[in-house]
Design a protein that fits this description.
Length: 317
């Protein structure tokens, strides 16, 4: 029987061996819990409205192809239609690898930057199963419900992840919502977030059978947390790490933006002389999820303040 523990929330969607030194670093990136009525689309709409009121111009559906630069500083963004947007500062919300290995020509980057970015470790570990229920489940806890195996099984899940296999017992967080904007009246949705799910499987692609096995494990976790709930499931969708990469542009489906490890966190980035969010290119700032420490919009807010400070100091002339 799985154990329920809020302390295991530090591994929601991630993976670690609790018996190895350094695993406590996950507590520094402890994800904040919370829901937004209407889903994240409602939050995005509110942010867009606030940005426009502040004078921001928002342009959507225009693919960026490269970051223009010369003499160690950025000058703007090149677009797929051949046009260019000039800028003194560029903020990338993509992860480190996607930013440098997709928007710069490798032969135009200094060798040390290519080596540092190439050595930066990504760690896609998250998968989700979305359930639609035909009832509200009276008495079910709102917010996150953590269903976690014991410490030995967590360590085994970490070993399985590193070998490209899916453990029999995975840490999972369940979130029940009866928000009428997400589900019809009288029904509900449940999101099951798994940790220790590998992006690359040792025996090939993510087949329907492998997705179905993950769905069954999520269904078992739901039933163990809320007995009888599985009988009310009318539909399910599995979102594996490759799906996350395709939808969000997150390398290896890594929602954290990089492996949580002492040599990669905080000031110990790939280039010590340019601590995040700054980069070796003047005017290029990184605001990906690696900096967010689990809080929605935290990275963007922090980087915006630093860009405003650099502009005020004249550092971007």
């Amino acid at each position: 029987m799985p154990k329920f523990s809020r302390e295991r929330s530090a591994l929601r969607g991630w993976v670690a061996d609790p018996f190895l030194p350094g695993s406590a670093l996950h507590l520094l990136s402890l994800q904040r819990s919370g829901t937004v009525t209407g889903g994240l689309a409602t939050l995005a709409d509110a942010l867009v409205s606030a940005a426009r009121e502040a004078g921001a111009e928002i342009s959507l559906g225009r693919d960026a192809t490269d970051i223009r630069h010369a003499k160690g500083r950025v000058s703007g963004i090149g677009l797929a239609d051949g046009s260019e947007i000039e800028a003194r500062a560029v903020i990338s919300t993509l992860d480190l690898k996607r930013t440098f290995l997709s928007f710069f020509q490798w032969n135009a980057l200094p060798k040390e930057i290519v080596q540092a970015v190439g050595a930066f470790r990504m760690a896609g570990t998250t998968a989700r199963v979305l359930f639609a229920l035909d009832t509200v489940l009276p008495g079910a806890k709102r917010g996150a419900i953590y269903v976690a195996p014991d410490l030995e099984q967590l360590a085994a899940a970490n070993s399985a992840w590193r070998s490209g296999t899916i453990a029999a017992h995975l840490p999972v967080a369940l979130r029940v919502a009866d928000d009428p904007s997400l589900a019809p009246a009288g029904s509900a949705v449940v999101t099951a977030t798994f940790g220790a799910v590998p992006y690359r499987l040792f025996d090939g692609a993510w087949t329907r059978e492998k997705r179905d096995a993950l769905r069954k494990q999520a269904l078992a976790a739901l039933e163990s947390a809320i007995p009888g709930a599985s009988a009310h499931v009318v539909a399910a969708e599995v979102i594996a790490p490759p799906d996350i990469e395709e939808a969000l542009g997150a390398t290896d489906g890594d929602l954290a933006g990089g492996e949580i490890a002492a040599d990669q966190m905080l000031s110990a980035g790939p280039w010590p002389d340019f601590p995040f969010p700054r980069s070796p290119f003047k005017g290029l700032y990184l605001a990906g999820s690696w900096l967010a420490m689990g809080a929605t919009c935290a990275a963007g807010a922090a980087v915006a303040r630093i860009v405003a400070l650099d502009l005020a100091k004249g550092a971007l002339k």
